[in-house]
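Researcher: Next entry: Multifunctional fusion protein (Micromonospora noduli).
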Amino acid sequence: MTATVNMPVGKSWLICPGCRALLYQRRVERNLGVCPECDHHDQVTAHQRIEQLFDLDSVEELPPVGAFGDPLGFVDTVPYPQRIEAARRRTGLDEAVVCVRGTVEGQPLIAAVMDFRFLGGSLGTGVGERITRAAELALETRTPLLIVSASGGARMQEGVLSLMQMAKTSAALGALDEAGVLTISLVSDPTYGGVAASFATLCDVILAEPGARLGFAGPRVIQQTLRQPLPAGFQTAEYLFARGMLDDLVPRSNLRSTIGRLLAFTGADRSAPDPYPVRATAAPESADPWAVVALSRDLGRPSTLDYIGHFVDGFVELHGDRLASDCPAIVGGVGLIDGRPTVVIGHQKGHTVAEVASRNFGMATPAGYRKAARLMRLAEKLGTPIVTLIDTPGAYHGISAEENGQALAIADNIRMMAGLTVPVVAIVTGEGGSGGALALGVGNRVLMLANATYSVISPEGCAAILWNDSGRADEAAAQLKLQAGDLLALGIVDGVVPEPPGGAPADPGATASAVHRAVVDALAELAGLNREEVRAHRRARFRQIGGLTNAGG
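Model: Predicted structure:
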């Protein structure tokens, strides 16, 4: 394992292991242990971490856990008790984790903070017991739990007893899942082995510092096994973030505010916001269907991130499907809508050709739908409503998507949304293309903007299949009844959100305000239902579509 700690040079100077710059020690300390030249994040002690994150004078250390002794009578170069005692003298700690309770930006938090200086932050019975007790206190008090990991893995000197701490701590986190208590993991450098394969990666939100390394097996072990060089940046936070394993990379200077926003999300008032006095449900005047198709695709229409910026306060974007990648065509995260915690998910296209291309034209891969599903499960756990913003020509249909189970990902989302017990408000803001749209569209309330479209297939695709002539797309658009007024009459959508004169691109701010009002109004309508009634309402809504009433029978 490469050294990552600043090397002292005299009493006041350090050499950064990242860029080898000579640094004034107090300058590094003022910068929270981050190199001001290359941004290398040095290791910090548990107590330094607690001081950086928590409100001044709010911290109370949890009662200590007694010593667990030497259960195996283990001796390597020295007896295990001597090794423990030396670590205690060197660090001033009695174990490799410090557990506290306090507040971050005024919000209560319980934290278990590991310290790599103590036997490499190894996971033994003492560490496992302390983290489990912290989780049990979080469960008892319904307080969010933060775990800051820094570890080389399980403690060999305690044998299989240390291995069992992975199960014990994982079960404790499972109990918090069942109770709907938020858990946050902060991965610091390094985090390996049994810690990486248990509590460090089981939390609702996984944050990591830049450059932090995370993995089950260490790179040296992998290299010895494979006998080949590892990819550049292998196991770093940046490498894993690009592969959908982490929610976000957060510089140390932003950690406190990021955690504060997450805690504000869970601590906010969960009652429904007051509805706006006007609810738009009337069908818009008829327009040429092909012209509406063009309007629905206009790059000037507000995107999901535009809507979020307009009316979602304290938003924290969460990334990745925790399996393969982070699909840029779907964005999502947590925030407050008129003070009420809400999970917001939507397709993201963008406004320029370059941005649209980077977002894959708003066409999600299986990883995108799995990311959305993960965020919906978080909402279900925490009991918060979901708002989805739909704008896609359809799901991505390339070879890689098929190989990674595109149909399975879409089907799983549709089934899961049908079974959620939290309110779901879905709004078609631009193109509502086929199953790629429906995978975010199974809502208690389904709305659409006046110049949006919603269809089983694109007009061009319909014309090409039925008439072998994609040039007849305008005829297909008329036949498909994909406009808001038609869909309102068919019972597909519950309301139509008006657009300003000239359409959404003419006044994106007014459009976002109209969507905001429609969301708040829909959430207020659903507020009187309990969780089982919410699910029954949604299932009944879709049960009647295409029945005798809709068919005119």
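Model: Note for the record: The first strand starts at residue 7 and ends at 9.
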